[in-house]
UniProtKB/TrEMBL annotation:
This is LysR family transcriptional regulator. Keywords: DNA-binding, Transcription, Transcription regulation. GO terms for molecular function: DNA-binding transcription factor activity; transcription cis-regulatory region binding. It comes from Chryseobacterium sp. B5. Coiled coil: none annotated. The keyword Iron does not apply. Residues 4-61 form the HTH lysR-type domain. The lineage of its organism: Bacteria, Pseudomonadati, Bacteroidota, Flavobacteriia, Flavobacteriales.
Length: 311
């Protein structure tokens, strides 16, 4: 099996952008045959076809779209890290680096930054979008100043003994949604207990905090034996896209689907009693292990959200 090379992920991005093997090869400054070999190498690594090769255009398969979403995240993290490493040490000391999941980075985090910047307008933020497990590792190793994540028992266990401080900074709700069959009537309704046809279900990857939270409630919410998993991804955005394609139902954050529900692009797959509330927290290392700027920022956050607690 071929090793994964970052160039191959960039090739996939170029192919998705252009929709053509020839145009993508030109963008990547290589010949068309060489580009084709690199895409086949990526498919060999993935173990599944990633592109649909047509006469007029080339499109990504569902697997290709899933890999592309992950590629965007990986390449974005590396670009952010490279930019941070190029800055002088003095500039890095004046920057707050925060690790957050991709969904939180564009739903909850912007409001926090906006509120805090009113009191600290000179503050520079560096956001690293990453998985929960890697975010925890980065915080404990001092590679980031803060960690934003969804509150859940699993993370509490991994943070025990590190004397971290945390603040509750937001709330969201996981809502079961589907494309509508007719306005406000879902194509896929949440299966009740008592039998019936299988319902296609879009699930979070095991590593995702949203998936861990949802799975801890799922048996109480519906007859799980009637959910047929047809798609799994480690990005809420990817599940969101597949719900829009009509592939099945999924529990998605209200912050992500509120406009879809209001404008009728999606419909609830069940009533509010099947919603799952989720809390959002910010974590930092002990004050003695935090740089002065982090301590000042934390004091500003406490003015907004109350006194911090210890894990």
């Amino acid at each position: 099996m071929h090793e994964l090379n970052l160039k191959l992920l960039q090739d996939l991005q170029a192919l998705a952008d252009t929709g053509s093997l020839y145009k993508a090869a030109e963008r990547r400054h290589i010949t068309h045959p060489a580009f084709g070999r690199r895409i086949r190498a990526l498919e060999e690594w993935a173990g599944t076809p990633l592109v649909e090769r047509g006469h007029q255009s080339t499109t990504l398969t569902a697997a290709g779209k899933t890999l592309l979403a992950s590629a965007h995240e990986v390449l974005g993290i590396l670009e952010q890290t490279h930019g941070l490493l190029q800055r002088p040490h003095r500039t890095r000391d004046e920057t707050i680096t925060i690790a957050a999941g991709r969904t939180l980075s564009h739903t909850v985090l912007p409001g926090i930054i906006t509120a805090l910047n009113q009191a600290m307008p000179q503050l520079c933020w560096k956001v690293v979008t990453t998985s929960l497990d890697y975010g925890v590792e980065m915080l404990l190793q001092g590679k980031v100043d803060l960690l934003m994540c969804h509150a859940q028992p699993a993370i509490e266990g991994s943070l025990q003994g590190h004397h971290l401080a945390w603040l509750p900074v937001g709330q969201d709700t996981l809502i079961p949604v589907s494309i509508p069959l007719v306005p406000q009537l879902p194509k896929y309704a949440l299966p009740a207990h008592g039998g019936g046809p299988l319902v296609p279900y879009l699930d979070y990857a095991q590593s995702m905090s949203l998936g861990k939270i949802l799975r801890s409630h799922l048996h109480e919410l519906c007859d799980t034996t009637r959910l047929r998993t047809v798609y799994e991804a480690d990005l809420a955005d990817s599940l969101h896209a597949m719900v829009h394609q009509g592939l099945g139902l999924a529990w998605l954050p209200l912050t992500l689907v509120k406009a879809d529900l209001t404008e009728g692009r999606l419909a609830r797959a069940a009533g509010p009693d099947k919603d799952v509330p989720i809390n959002v927290r910010l974590y930092r290392r002990p004050a003695a292990q935090s740089k002065p700027l982090t301590r000042r920022v934390w004091a500003g956050l406490e003015n907004l959200y109350g006194r911090s607690q210890k894990s």
